[in-house]
Amino acid sequence: MAEIDLQKIVSHCKEYGFIFPSSEIYDNLGAVYDYGPFGAELKNHIKEYWWKSMVQMHENIVGIDAAIFMHPTTWKASGHVDSFSDPLIDNKDSKKRYRADVLLEEKIDKLKEKGEKELAKKNLLGAGEDEKAKASRDYAKGLTLEAEYKKAAEAADFKRYKELIEEYDIVCEVSGTKNWTDVRQFNLMFNTQLGSVADESNTIYLRPETAQGIFVNFLNVQKSARMKIPFGIAQIGKAFRNEIVARQFIFRMREFEQMEMQFFVRPGTQKEWFDKWKETRLKWHLALGTAQEKLRFHVHEKLAHYADAAEDIQFRFPIGFKELEGIHSRTDFDLSEHQKYSGKKLQYFDAELNQNYVPYVIETSIGLDRMFLRVMSEGLQEEALENGETRTVLRIPAPLAPIKVAILPLVKKDGLPEKAREIADKLRFIGRTFYEEKDSIGKRYRRMDAIGTPYCITVDHQTLEDNTVTIRERDTMEQSRIHINEIEQIVGAKIDMNNLLRKALA
What we know:
Elements: H1 6-15, E1 19-21, E2 33-35, H2 37-56, E3 61-63, H3 73-77, H4 80-83, E4 85-90, E5 97-99, H5 100-121, H6 129-135, H7 137-154, H8 158-167, E6 184-187, E7 190-193, E8 203-206, H9 211-215, H10 218-224, E9 231-240, E10 255-265, H11 270-286, E11 295-299, E12 309-317, E13 320-331, H12 333-342, E14 348-350, E15 355-357, E16 360-367, H13 368-379, E17 380-384, E18 390-394, E19 405-409, H14 416-427, E20 433-435, H15 441-450, E21 455-459, H16 461-466, E22 468-473, E23 479-483, H17 484-495, H18 498-504
Parallel strand pairs: 3-9, 19-20, 19-21
Antiparallel strand pairs: 1-2, 4-5, 4-6, 7-8, 9-10, 10-16, 11-12, 12-13, 13-16, 14-15, 17-18, 21-22, 22-23
Helix pairs in contact: 2-13, 5-7, 5-8, 6-7, 7-8, 11-18
């Protein structure tokens, strides 16, 4: 089976109506994308899977949908106004911008991966770090750089960032040179004005994260929904970041969607809940049929100002292992800061302890667009057929598929289109159907394979005689003859979202 690279995914997404560059007729807007007919369907099904697993299946989690615009003091309290920035470095020859921390992290990964290939030959992959370092020069360099980078990150020593980039021969991918500028801070927030006059006092921000909408509504939700600790508030919403480096298709965008949940717990219990949510979220990903080796946890070397623990669930994208979901122990930072800046008590009265306290928070946050890319990159395959041809197939879980079933009349005459339309109308109640009568049946099958349709139903002359149709399965291409009355049961069982939910919560 042929390996699918990122460029093939990009081309496939555009050709088959999943994702288009934003404002393409005006030569695009950088790192902003529109979801097409099938992309919008897939995206909504991913949302549904997340929402049902987080809200519907947990009686102590509720959902909200907070506004994008918030009072500007919100972002002062959260720390974003003063410290929401990334370390920026430019290559003087190419004029290309990079995140200095990403350059170093990628170099660490490359050195370790190179070292691991050498260690695999010596059967030392299971050895301790010290033994690995002795056996592989590259692995040792990776560990050394990792330790130096960690020190620099903790001290916010940007001068040291540049020194490490130069010491480890990190070059610009365009110019191939090490002619770097100094590293400086780059603020990631977009701001605008509220009202008719552009004035500093009227400045508001497009939210860089969705979490603060949950925190400022903590009391509203707790009282109105009668929630008791521990409880969670979930949300799916847009966020905006003025990224230094917005590349690699929809992996990093300037406008994106987050699916996140803030879970409020008693102080002192955050470690227990942090581990629990790590396990729960990993199960959610594995329920999609992902191989264990494609997922891994990555411990943050540099913690955010609000966190006492943080790990990422990383997925092996075509561009390597990258962050898919973050799990953070946010302590009581956010509620305490909003309490201070607003003058309102954001506390919980614990009847069991007979005391008030500011809850601690465990956050799970996953980028919806990254999740979309993960589904596409894992599902898109090119496979050789026995007849020497190649087919492109999108093997995604059936409950997430944009189109659930395609209804295809064999020919455009003899009453077959009318019969096919009749079947399609009945099946609309179980999921999105697709009717197509153009081109040969083989070409139509290939199109449906390419957009991930689990089943195709072919209506032929025999259908008019005995009400049977040919049903074709996407993954195996197996065909069988069934009665019209069986279609809904067979397709419905395959596309049922509950199949995923049961696996995720087993």
